[in-house]
Amino acid sequence: MNKALNILVTGCGGDIGQSIGKILSKSSYTNNLFGIDISDKNAAQFIYPNFSVGLPYTHPDYLKKLELFIEENNIDTIIPVAEPELRFFSRRNILNTIGKAKMITASALALEIGFDKFKTAEFLKKENLPFPETFLAKSLKRIDNFPVILKSKTGSGSKDIHKINSIEEFLFHTKNTIDDYVVQEFISDEKGEFTCGVFRSSSKEIRNKIFKRELTSGYSGYGEVIENTNISNLLEKIAVKLDLVGSINIQLRIKENQPKVFEINPRFSSTVLFRHLLGFEDLIWSIEDLLGYTLSDNRSNVVGRKFYKGFEEYIK
């Protein structure tokens, strides 16, 4: 019989947090499900039976209040979802426990590398793994080949990603600050863009799922499960080189028949619910790994299955 946990998800108001809540609300590993977000103007309050508004991570009392919440509600497991919070914990090397609650995050090196896009490129280069050429924007004296991709070195999401077609566009987007930007080789999506879930357990078992996807407003709005040995082998190499324990998301495109990684997101991704419904249950495996259980396995051959991002309305 599975151990039932009091689980707290922080930053639960975004799409990833809501997806995680939907999974946990139906899981036998969940005893009481709690969610905290800095706002109640989202649908998480309809998904989490115990929803509350908390402090932003920038507040001086953030950690103290979080520890108090964990103690008062007998929280067993905490899952930080929002990337700014994950960066906060990573910088302070708080990755195992908060109070008496055990944390579920990707391991330290995956967080360090994934949260810095220039470090990601340098890591892939050092390990002789394929990636698009990437430079610190402030170090470039000239750009010879357009288009290029300009993106925040430390940002998340698509709002700080620009396809740049001229030096004038480059100067426009960097006029206020250039320090946080990287310039990346543009790779066409003619052969597709792929988002890949990668899970590695503490006993070093690796599992992955590959979606060929299309973006809708910065999110994976549509995708199809594919099988690709070259991509799968690359994902496994990255997991080993990162000494990964936990779940990450890797994004790539194909150039000259070679998959090239342009981003490593060291967290559960916006496809976590789609993956779960298709048998890639990395959230559940993370809980099982934390408890020292043998990983369950509901995977089956789902190559060719498709997902579609929809919306749900709530009235209060």
Written as H for each helix and E for each strand, in order along the chain, the element string is EHEHEHEHEEHHEEEHEEEEHEEHHE
| Sheet with most strands | 6 strands, mixed
Mean pLDDT value: 95
Q: Terminal Cα separation, in Å?
A: 37 Å
Report the C-alpha radius of gyration, rounded: 20 Å
Order of adjacent strands in the largest pleated sheet: 3-2-1-4-6-5
Number of extended strands? 16
The poorly predicted ranges are none
* Structural class computed from helices and strand pairing: alpha+beta
Strand proportion, as a percent range, falls in 25-35%
Count of individual helical segments: 10
Helix content bin = 25-40%
Shape: globular
The multimeric state of the shown protein is single chain
What this model shows, in words?
This protein is an alpha+beta fold and 316 residues long. 28% of the residues lie in helices and 29% in strands. The protein has ten helices and 16 strands. It has helices at residues 15-24, 44-47, 62-72, 83-91, 108-114, 117-126, 167-173, 229-241, 272-277, 282-291; strands spanning 5-10, 30-37, 50-53, 77-80, 97-98, 101-103, 134-136, 148-152, 161-164, 181-185, 193-200, 206-216, 219-226, 246-255, 258-265, 306-308. It has a six-stranded mixed sheet. A hairpin with a 2-residue loop joins strand 12 (206-216) and strand 13. The protein is globular and about 60 Å long. The two termini are 37 Å apart. The relative contact order is 0.13. The model has no long low-confidence stretch (mean pLDDT 95).
